[in-house]
């Protein structure tokens, strides 16, 4: 990836101090504020290339709209729920998070909730504080020998499994991406959800919140569970349908719930929080000193790695950039942009072309097709008022009505305009333009002027003057 220059970063809320010091050690100017209000953020954001947030700052479309120079939004934490990723992508801004910084903390809280559910620890604590000594009421059950269903076997799901196995629990699970043999290597047998529900004494969810996971546990799935099943949601509010959970708690189908997250935070509807069999926390999964330190440090290191063109970690909307960290890719991106700009200049109208066919030749180009074709579109769309880059160009070209077709075989192009380019000696060059072959490849740099005329040595001197011959 061609290095992205980040000279100034705004930290809009409390982030571990290592974040600021790492950025500053790497020559980035940092302004740190506490709990910035939205209006203040909108007024100031145009002065920065980078923004670092945790979860209190809501990076909405109007904030992004005012962020004229912003190149990256970094969230020191897992997930980017407080960032309007679509608006950022359209503006060509990278959105990055620190996916693994709080894995252990979230896993440990999940385990704490599972253990508390088995022994009614929070309820017993409240009762003691009220002056009671009620031993019968808080009779619990052992975790040993019980079945824990883990839905979502990513980073946190895996850590929860190994910890609860040490309590003697049998761990079963489901994940559409993690291969069964991989989870089996850490002791989790995978099976379809239909088979999983009826076997579990406890269920914990560790998936992202997305259309396919909203209401994963609902009336229908609760009905398939063992009576009295206990559930934990330390992932995102809404993965367990809140209304269905309340119904299951009231009917006894669900014997208890540990909730760290809610659809609305803080929850205005208090029915779940106040239910006697619910233990809940105000979204504390990542709230440990260690997790905050790791996330603050990780976001700064990830930004610095990106700025120095070393690697890209944690970006949620810039997958295309991951394979652009070699000098060869920089050259191909320059070639693509130059060819795109040339084709745009060749059109007689100011409007971009409506369809672009890109053909790459040679096996070495197989891995570069996606960023090469996007860079051609960047060149094509770069005109007054339009600032395309590799992040936003696909959505901009869709909006502009440009169809992009990619071929990886011999040219069969019958387009109106055709340009053939290559990289020679590290320099992007033009080999052919609209049927005219350049025996001497033309370096695609600086300002170029093209004339179409019959080959005639006198013509050049009459156009360029004798001194240039
Ligand atoms: N409570 C907190 O403060 C806190 C802290 C950290 C993370 N989290 C949340 O925990 C969740 C898990 O985080 P992670 O770091 O383990 O993420 P991860 O990306 O490592 O793992 C998520 C897993 O869910 C799986 N998945 C996706 N759709 C699924 C489906 N329909 N059914 C089953 N599995 C599915 C994915 O394949 C992936 O393996 C996320 O929602 C994250 O936002 C919460």
UniProtKB/TrEMBL annotation:
PANTHER family on file: D-3-PHOSPHOGLYCERATE DEHYDROGENASE, FORMATE DEHYDROGENASE 1
SUPFAM superfamilies listed in its UniProt record: Formate/glycerate dehydrogenase catalytic domain-like, NAD(P)-binding Rossmann-fold domains, Serine metabolism enzymes domain
Domain of life according to the entry: Eukaryota
Catalytic activity: (2R)-3-phosphoglycerate + NAD(+) = 3-phosphooxypyruvate + NADH + H(+)
Pathway linked to the protein: Amino-acid biosynthesis; L-serine biosynthesis; L-serine from 3-phospho-D-glycerate: step 1/3
PROSITE patterns for the chain: D_2_HYDROXYACID_DH_1
CDD domains in the record: PGDH_4
Assembly information from the UniProt record: Homotetramer.
MF GO annotations: NAD binding; phosphoglycerate dehydrogenase activity
Alphabetically ordered keywords of this record: Acetylation, Amino-acid biosynthesis, NAD, Oxidoreductase, Phosphoprotein, Serine biosynthesis
Name of the protein this chain belongs to: D-3-phosphoglycerate dehydrogenase
The UniProt record lists the keyword Transmembrane: no
Biological process per Gene Ontology, one example term: L-serine biosynthetic process
UniProt organism field: Takifugu rubripes (Japanese pufferfish)
Protein family (similarity comment): Belongs to the D-isomer specific 2-hydroxyacid dehydrogenase family.
Enzyme Commission number, as recorded: 1.1.1.95
Stretches assigned to the D-isomer specific 2-hydroxyacid dehydrogenase catalytic domain: 9-317
One Pfam family, short name: 2-Hacid_dh_C
Cited Gene3D superfamilies: D-3-phosphoglycerate dehydrogenase, domain 3, NAD(P)-binding Rossmann-like Domain
D-isomer specific 2-hydroxyacid dehydrogenase NAD-binding domain mapped to chain residues: 112-285
């Amino acid at each position: 990836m061609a290095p992205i220059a980040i000279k100034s970063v705004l930290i809009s809320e409390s982030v571990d101090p290592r974040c600021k010091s790492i950025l500053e050690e790497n020559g980035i100017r940092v302004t740190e504020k506490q709990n910035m209000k939205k209006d203040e953020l909108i007024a100031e954001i145009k002065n920065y290339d980078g923004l670092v947030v945790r979860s209190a700052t809501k990076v909405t479309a109007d904030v992004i709209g005012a962020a004229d120079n912003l190149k990256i939004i970094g969230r020191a934490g897992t997930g980017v729920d407080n960032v309007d990723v679509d608006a950022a992508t359209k503006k060509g801004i990278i959105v990055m998070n620190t996916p693994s910084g709080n894995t252990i903390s979230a896993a440990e809280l999940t385990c704490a909730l599972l253990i508390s559910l088995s022994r009614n620890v929070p309820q017993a604590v409240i009762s003691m504080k009220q002056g009671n000594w009620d031993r019968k009421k808080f009779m619990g059950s052992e975790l040993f020998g019980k079945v824990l269903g883990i839905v979502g076997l990513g980073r946190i799901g895996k850590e929860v499994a190994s910890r609860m196995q040490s309590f003697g629990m049998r761990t079963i699970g489901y994940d559409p991406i993690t291969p069964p043999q991989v989870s089996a290597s850490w002791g989790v047998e995978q099976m379809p959800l239909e088979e999983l529900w009826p076997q579990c004494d406890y269920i914990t969810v560790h998936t992202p919140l997305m259309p396919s996971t909203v209401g994963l546990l609902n009336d229908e799935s609760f009905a398939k569970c063992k009576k009295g099943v206990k559930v934990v949601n330390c992932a995102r509010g809404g993965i367990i349908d809140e209304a269905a959970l309340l119904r299951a708690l009231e009917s006894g189908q669900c014997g208890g719930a540990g909730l760290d997250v809610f659809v609305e935070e803080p929850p205005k509807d208090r029915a779940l929080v106040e239910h006697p069999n619910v233990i809940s926390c105000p979204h504390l999964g990542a709230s440990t000193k260690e997790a905050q330190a790791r996330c603050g440090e990780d976001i700064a290191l990830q930004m610095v790695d990106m700025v120095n063109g070393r690697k890209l970690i944690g970006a949620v909307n810039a997958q295309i950039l991951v394979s652009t960290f070699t000098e060869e890719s920089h050259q191909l991106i320059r070639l693509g942009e130059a060819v795109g700009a040339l084709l745009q200049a060749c059109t007689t109208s100011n409007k971009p072309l409506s369809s672009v066919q890109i053909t790459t030749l040679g096996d070495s180009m197989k891995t570069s097709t996606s960023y090469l074709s996007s860079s051609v579109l960047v060149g094509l769309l770069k005109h007054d008022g339009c600032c395309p880059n590799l992040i936003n160009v696909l959505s901009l070209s869709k909006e502009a009505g440009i169809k992009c077709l990619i071929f990886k075989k011999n040219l069969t192009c019958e387009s109106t305009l055709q340009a053939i380019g290559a990289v020679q000696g590290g320099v992007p060059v033009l080999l052919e333009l609209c049927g005219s072959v350049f025996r001497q490849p033309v370096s695609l740099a600086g300002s170029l002027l093209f004339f179409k005329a019959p080959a005639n040595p006198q013509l050049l001197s009459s156009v360029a003057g004798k001194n240039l011959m």
